[in-house]
Structures
1.
Amino acid sequence: MPLVTSKELLQQAQKEGYAIGAFNANNMECVKAVIEAAEEERAPVILQVSQGAIRYAGLKMATAMVNAAAEEASVPVVLHLDHGTSFLQNVQCIHAGFTSLMYDGSAEPLEKNIETSAKITEIAHAVGLPVEAELGNIPKIEDYLSTEEANELRGRSPAEQVDALRAKAGPQVEALMADPGQAQEFVSRTGIDSLAAAVGSIHGMWDDIWPLRRDRIEALQKATGLPLVCHGSSGVIRTRAEAKAKGIELKPNECTLEEAVKIGLCKINVATIISITFLRGAREAWDERPMEKDLRKILLPGLKAAKELVRSYMRLFGSSGKVTGPARVDASEVKHAE
Ligand SMILES: [Zn+2]
């Protein structure tokens, strides 16, 4: 089916208390992994193109990949710009055929962020497209750890990793969170459709161990009434049971990804952990067959591993089973035939 906008998907998700997974269109295999999982789960899905993907594949190629996949799909697919850097880039993406936009002005002074977000929203709304904008600052793990420090930390137990991160990054991550009063003003002065608010997550984490701030999500939801978007979700602990199994203790004002969906997260971006899972799948295949000459035979196990993780996130978010129409006829095994 043709691409749909994120507005209709997110409004429905907000009404019914589930979230739409937003996954990255980094290459053809990632696009196929996400679409196949969405097909099989009967889940609406967002494929997003990041700044890295635009540099890697080019805007034209990335757009064409998602368009082709959506056309063949029997579930609603959105083509979303992730962390759009400027007014210009957002306009270019409208022209390219995106059905959902993002402007990230979080590094700008507040007034400049409001001004550019409002300008993009006015133009996007004129052609029926919704806009996500960012408030507060969602940091990345590289802001706190060097590569050596991160590698050393990854070797420790999940509970030790969380303790070390709380000491190293905790106060600053808290200080960067979006302020509910400011969010209310931001939303009313920009007219945006969804809000990427900093609620305690960190971009680029290698494992799901880190909690979100329940109190801040609740306050932002109350202040804005908008669908909230969670960035940096790869690092967020998924459920209470998984926290317990990993020996991670949550504080009273913290929550898991599963709980955060129930209190207002409607779009959840998961990138890093899907990428790591893809690479692990491919590496295992190559370890098993080091003399393999056909790259497809190494990439396909990566695709399948990524697809299973995407599927598990769709189930966690409650978006599985939300599409009622008939599934596409061809099975993935047929599509994978060589
Ligand atoms: Zn992000």
Note: The radius of gyration is 19 Å.
2.
Amino acid sequence: MNRPRIRTFSHHCRERFGQTIGKIPLDLGITCPNRSKGGCLYCRPASFTPFSLRATDPLDEQIRRGKKYLLRNRFTRYFGYFQQETATAMATAQLIPILAQVLEDPDCVGIILSTRPDAIAANLPAALAHLIDKSGKECLIELGLQSIHPASLQLLNRQHSFEDFLGAVRRIQAVGNLQLGVHLILGIPEESETDMLQTMQTVCTLGIQALKVHHLQVIRDTPLHTLYEQGHVTVFSHKGYLELLLRLLARIPAEITLHRLWSTSHPDLLVAPRWQSLTGALSKELQRLMTERDIWQGQQANSK
Ligand code: SF4
């Protein structure tokens, strides 16, 4: 087959922009509202902060350093990626001018806002839609859900429900020109493969454009680390995770872009699983297995 077996972010960008596009992580310097409620079980911001990003830098300096250290000579254009904490916890009136400033850079093709379902203010979707119309660029909102199952959301201390998520989806989709992505974790304690498949299939029916999926990682000094040390958490082997992906990928509709299939937490903070393979090698291995077994994304997207 000529088309790629997975609709990766780079494949999507080549199709949409005629070239691959980088992401520059940006930090607004605000704190996720869930931290005052204990934070998510697995979360430690330092584990997903790239070395080049300093929250104390003004945004134009963060972009300059991102271009220098992350884009280097690999990409000429980028998405401003507000991945740190919960960007939309900032008041809409304060956030929109900041995003407008980022979108003014001709090298910036759009913004990605990583956030929580309960942090989409009533006036935010319309304000973002107006900004995106004016700029002619793109906005993807990545909603962290992790699982549709109430027991898992409670265990992870997400402090929102699946219904909160559905409400945020409706409000975002109502304005028409915002793209929507969902972030899921595979391997949440007590979840079976059927539970994970149910989550995946449910979110794939919601008209989303992107998925960010990764395996559960235990990060040092998080509440999940304590549970892991007490023997309550099982993590995937790299072979086991690839086999799970091979079974799930065929169920994901071919038009959904997969921004991520595994985590890449800072090695100094990662307790488990400590696979020896780097992401490039994992990706090659997955592609090889998909070719050998003739599996492709979307192959069984309509099967129950
Ligand atoms: S919502 Fe995101 S940033 Fe906030 S505590 Fe949870 S994982 Fe961390």
Note: The longest strand covers residues 138-146.
3.
Amino acid sequence: MARWSVPLTDVVISDDDIEAVTDVYRSGWLSMGPETAAFEQEFAAYTGSRHAVAVSSCTAALHLVCTASGLGAGDEVIVPSLTFVATVNAVAYTGARPVFADVAGPERPWLSAEACELAIGPRTKAIVAMDYGGHAGDLEALRSLTDRHGLILIEDAAHAAGSRLHGRHLGTFGDAGAFSFFSNKNLGIGEGGMLVTDDDALAARARLLRSHGMTTLSWDRFRGHASTYDVVALGFNYRLDEPRAALARRRLGRLDDENRRRALVAAGYLEALADLPLAAPLTPREGLTPSHHLFTIVLEPGADRDAFRAHLARRGIETSVHYPPAHRFSIYSDGAPARLPETDGYASRSVTLPMFAHLQGRQLDEVASAVREALD
Ligand SMILES: Cc1ncc(COP(=O)(O)O)c(C=O)c1O
């Protein structure tokens, strides 16, 4: 299976993890039940949120936030283009129109508060910020902007499990946050997500919509807490299942430790690449303990990125680009993509290097020497 000597990302599932999952299969209760409820409580405590609603993906969490916040046709929502397309799709699912705003700069790949302010119009209802690589970006400025204009702030915290700014967990700066537990994420379990919020009404609405708008769940009925149900809203099936909740609980217990190991990898890269003609935009700012979800470098203008990546691939090193910008996808460009020069600049020059908690010193040296050769 291992095609790469240094893959972009990797995950270790221990025998104890497998046992915890097997125990769930033996229990005979497979979807949303005690493991999911315990995971929600533990994740709420971990992030300092009043509510955590476990769902089948971050995309589902984002969609639930948008829907439960009342976004719909006729509304506009400001979004980054430098993100995974799900951030934008979640807005579009509701009928609201995503309006792209630029990132802050070539070494600041997150939504610019100034660009957002310029994009606000009479139909604007919300801003979706994305915590790029687990970084806080302009979150405080965005919060004060949305407060001044009476807008909803949604945080796509897919990258940010374990990221804290001055002790406050990312995903909790807005009205609601959405986390991803997709395989390549810091808390990867295959598929899964979590919505966090301090807003009681939003959480209750999201819980209702997560399971078909039904007033009781199978688990409630199994325990004899109810015998029937009503359907009071047009909901979805966005439930998480018990085996993955069990795996997530185990992985949450070691998330901080794994993120500290990622921090050592990031520090190792920064040291090894310090003298090279490239920028490393994800150097943590003061007060930030990031998840180190990604390690990206930005090549000089005019550098041949394809050739650079091809050289690393020949050395067995997998790289990626985060992200092909959403405003250039056919579905969102309408033939005339928005003008986002900083996003285009970053998207055309950045390269994501391998990053995972157990990346070995030997692998880091291989990556650094291949980067050096490729730039030569
Ligand atoms: C920034 C961002 N938002 C949303 C998502 C969607 O997450 P999921 O795959 O859990 O739906 C991802 C996943 O890759 C992501 O990176």
Note: Residues 15-253 form a domain with the Aspartate Aminotransferase; domain 2 fold (CATH 3.40.640.10).
4.
Amino acid sequence: MKSILIDTIRSNVRGEVLLSEPLKDHTTYRVGGAAELLVRPHSVAEAIWMYRLAHRRGIPLTILGAGSNVIAPDQGIEGIVIETKDSFKRITFVGNGVVRAEAGVTLLELARAAARKRLRGLEPISCIPGTAGGAVVMNAGTRDGDTSRSLVRAGVCTAQGRTRIFKARELSFGYRRSILLGSDWMVLWMEFKLTRGNPRDSLKAIDELWEERNRKYPLEVPSAGSVFKRPPNDFAGRIIESAGCKGMRVGGALVSERHANFIVNTGSATASDILALIELVRKTVYGKTGIYLELEQIPLAVHTSCNGSSRLK
Ligand SMILES: Cc1cc2nc3c(=O)[nH]c(=O)nc-3n(C[C@H](O)[C@H](O)[C@H](O)COP(=O)(O)OP(=O)(O)OC[C@H]3O[C@@H](n4cnc5c(N)ncnc54)[C@H](O)[C@@H]3O)c2cc1C
């Protein structure tokens, strides 16, 4: 029975357990139907417990960080969505310049905490509005460096609910990808090795990066950052702009006038609008330049269907 399952979860998880929770309230695009059940575990142990439960019962499971790189489907997501952001987010300074962060801490919180402890190295990714877990999966980065640059190792939960520790080099990092992307594993925590720095300089660098991005990107409207990956030796924004796509619109989704590689939600966009606009831009660019743009954003789908893909029973 659904209610028995929910009672079991509620009595084992101290974090929030929300029924039919609109995903548009948990994604930066502000689109998406309801998660059948959205759970925000309070600790790494609770997250592992959730994974084991889903595996045992054959319940589809999906992981959401800050929802800043996903397009959540209009029809919602069946089963359980685990949201890590602000759920488990402990930061521990373990000595020797190493900081351990739980997956749900945001990159900004982490970089600021490290800066205050006189550790530098996370400034380049501090302006990315995601969680540390999402950043490892995506190998999130800016022109000044990406997540893999200072990562030492990460603790991961497998679909069966077992924990494994991977050294950074085992995660096959590349441009906006890792072995974890598209896998059914969940990042629980990670360690970064940082260098000694001056807190005032680091905090200033972080503030300056945010200011620069505020000038460059349409941060005042909902989006999920860059839509397409950077093609070799060029910029997706430049190519899209020169193909005449700025201002293209499908429903409430619009190719930003400020930065052509951003699609923004003007207020009424659905996931279908965004996906249709992505295809329109892609087709137009391909037709005019022969370049096939690769998607950076992720249409959110069930992470692990464990033993089956039934709705909550
Ligand atoms: C305004 C704006 C600017 C941006 N600028 C940049 C930028 O400069 N550089 C850049 O790289 N990105 C950028 N992004 C995109 C995004 O912030 C990053 O990709 C970020 O790393 C995503 O983290 P998240 O926690 O939001 O992950 P989500 O979007 O929630 O999830 C992304 C994927 O990772 C999976 N996932 C998330 N957490 C875990 C976990 N703990 N374990 C396993 N799987 C997990 C999800 O299932 C999903 O498949 C930007 C986004 C916005 C909105």
Note: The chain has three domains: 2-86, 91-214, 226-296.
